[in-house]
Specification:
Elements (H helix, E strand, L loop, with lengths): L13 H9 L10 H27 L7 H10 L7 H4 L28
Helix pairs in contact: 1-2, 2-3
Keywords: Nucleus
Subcellular location: Nucleus
Protein name: Transcription factor CBF/NF-Y/archaeal histone domain-containing protein
Length: 115
């Protein structure tokens, strides 16, 4: 009897991931499994980032995850080094400062178009 393929319930839509991948002119055909694998990878990455950020938030006895917590998380973990440019404009919160007035949020990433 042939084995049944296990269907992965993606949290990030594979169709959208495929569209994003194909906006790059250098990307040719994309195998059907690739967007699903990237979806799972993205899920694990975001989980890892938020778990570390939650630990930082808890260590500061804060109730709300703030941009400064995300910045501290990204700067403290070597595996998040590639995100440093995104958080360089986020202000650090000082100990006496209210987290809600700590400054601007994260700057959205806008990829450069290749010519």
């Amino acid at each position: 009897m042939p084995s049944k393929k296990k269907k992965y319930n993606a949290r990030f839509p594979a169709g959208r991931i495929k569209k994003i991948m194909q906006t790059d002119e250098e990307v040719g055909k994309v195998a059907q499994a690739v967007p699903v694998i990237i979806s799972r990878t993205l899920e694990l990455f975001v989980g890892s980032l938020l778990t570390k950020a939650m630990q930082i938030t808890s260590a500061k006895n804060a109730k709300t995850l703030s941009p400064s917590h995300m910045k501290q998380c990204i700067l403290s973990e070597q595996r998040f080094d590639f995100l440093k440019d995104l958080v360089k404009t986020v202000q650090d919160s000082s100990n006496g400062e209210d987290e809600s007035t700590a400054g601007p949020g994260l700057v959205p990433y806008i990829p450069e178009r290749r010519t």
